[in-house]
Each structure stands twice: as C-alpha cells, then as structure tokens.
C-alpha cells in the first residue's frame, strides 16, 4: 500500500519549535514534506503574495522555505513542490491559541483554509502559551494530541470543504481533562487593545496588544473548553454566507434606482 503524503506548514516560520514538533508527531503516519514561510508570518491571515517575486529555498529533499505567507506555501507545495496531491495538510503547531475571532487573523488556520479550498483534508493545531514568558510551553501535550488527532483524521477525514482547528491548553499531558468538540466562542470586547507609547524622541508609537480575556458564557465554545483544561476541536468552513439574511436582503433586488442617480457621483 502506498504511504500517505502529508504536508506540514505553519505561520511561525520553518525554524519554529512548533513545526518541528508537528513534523515529528506526524512522521510515523506517512511521507512528510515541510513547506513553510522562511520567517514568522503570524497574523498573516489568508494573504496571498502578488506584489513581489517568491523564491523557494530548499533545505533538503523534504524541507522547503518560501519568502511568502502560509497561503503561498500551501499553493507552492501543491503545484510546484510535492510529487502528488497530499492526503493530509497539518498546520502548526502555532505558538499561541487560535480561538473565537482569532481564526480570521490566524495564518495557521488560513493554511488549513487554503488546503480545504484546494480540496485536501486539513487540520490546524495551536498551543496555548503561558502568560509568563519564562515558563516553557507544553509542546509535550501538543505532540501527543496532534499525533492522535492526525492519525484519526487521516483514517476518517471529513469532506474537504471542512477544516478542523485544534487548540491545546497550556497544561501537561496528565493535567488535560479530555477533548471537547466545540463551536467558535465570542470574546467581550470592551476596551481598546491599542497601546500608545512614546519613543526616545517623544513621538508616539503604538502596539496592538492582546485580545480581551472575558468571553460570552457558553459551555459549547472553544474559549470555554481551553479555559477548563480541555483540548478543543472546532470544525470550520469557508462559506461565510449568512443564510438567514438572504431573504431579508432580497428586497434590494427589486428596488428601483432613480435614473438620474445611475451615472454615479460627479
Ligand atoms: Mn503564529
């Protein structure tokens, strides 16, 4: 039997600890290729590079770095690098969780979105990172769960129009309470997270800080699961259509626009 082909990518860059752990986690499951950005591209979202040339730097037979985004990497892997279509794409392990609205900014999740668009079963893995920067992240937990979930998913993937986002809590393997299948939660945004400081010359500069900690109470959400020590598994899809609003907006289809306004401004 032919071994499955597995593509590993991420948004933290090819040299990150998380992608090394993920590659090791899935290596017994098939032939593994790594195609990832040459530097950190966190919060790259689903960006595609169209205004600069892209170059592939081959590290060895199975490792390639690209001076582009996670979405670029998935496209290059599929159409330039891999010998055939992969059976599974895994993205991560991201240094930091991707919960609730985070998935729309996340390069890690977007790599899986791109895989899904291109018809490949895709998983995104993100690890909650300790608030104290001196504490080591629990890549041991991420390793175990990414291996198990990838094994199960490879054997029985969902339709490729669905991708799956997995978040692992900041706990050692023995302290993880289990696995919860969740929906995206909702954070309570009540104040700005844009921080203003002054540079040595007295001019202002800004940092975008961390998102709010509070969230809408919902025991089925990803935020709740991670907060309570569970691994969170959320199925996602790219059809952003809000179906209940279709009929309400249809009134616009028949709305008469006065002829004089049709020429537009000016
Ligand atoms: Mn990242």
In short:
The chain has 266 residues and is α/β, with parallel strands linked by helices.
Outline the structure in words:
This protein has helices spanning 17-26, 70-81, 102-105, 107-117, 139-155, 222-227, 246-249, and strands spanning 5-9, 31-37, 56-60, 63-66, 88-95, 122-127, 162-168, 178-181, 194-198, 204-208, 230-237. The protein has a single domain (5-184, 216-254), classed as Stationary-phase Survival Protein Sure Homolog, Chain: A, CATH 3.40.1210. It contains seven helices and eleven strands. It has 266 residues and is of the alpha/beta class. Strand 6 (122-127), helix 5 (139-155) and strand 7 form a beta-alpha-beta unit. The model has no long low-confidence stretch (mean pLDDT 94). The protein is globular, with a radius of gyration of 21 Å. The site of manganese (II) ion (MN) has 7 residues, from strand 5 and helix 4.
């Amino acid at each position: 039997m032919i071994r499955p082909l597995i593509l590993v990518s991420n948004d933290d860059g090819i040299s990150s600890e998380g992608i090394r752990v993920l590659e090791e986690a899935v290596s017994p499951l098939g032939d593994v290729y790594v195609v990832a950005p040459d530097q950190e591209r966190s919060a790259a979202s689903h960006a595609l590079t169209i205004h600069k040339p892209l170059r592939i730097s081959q590290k060895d037979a199975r490792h390639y770095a690209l001076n582009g985004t996670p979405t670029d990497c998935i496209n290059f892997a599929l159409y330039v690098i891999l010998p055939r279509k992969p059976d599974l794409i895994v993205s991560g392990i991201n240094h930091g969780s991707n919960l609730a609205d985070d998935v729309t900014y996340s390069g890690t999740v977007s790599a899986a979105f791109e895989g899904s668009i291109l018809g490949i079963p895709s998983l995104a893995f993100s690890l909650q990172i300790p608030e104290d920067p001196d504490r080591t992240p629990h890549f041991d937990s991420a390793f175990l769960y990414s291996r198990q979930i990838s094994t199960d998913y490879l054997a029985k993937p969902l339709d490729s129009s669905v991708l799956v986002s997995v978040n692992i809590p900041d706990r050692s393997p023995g302290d993880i309470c289990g696995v919860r299948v969740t929906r995206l939660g909702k954070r309570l945004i009540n104040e700005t997270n844009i921080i203003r400081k002054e540079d040595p010359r007295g001019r202002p500069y800004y940092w975008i800080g961390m998102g709010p900690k509070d969230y809408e109470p919902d025991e089925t959400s990803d935020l709740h699961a991670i907060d309570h020590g569970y691994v969170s598994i959320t199925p996602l899809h790219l059809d952003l259509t809000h179906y209940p609003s279709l009929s309400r907006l249809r009134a616009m289809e028949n709305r008469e626009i006065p002829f004089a306004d049709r020429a537009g401004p000016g």
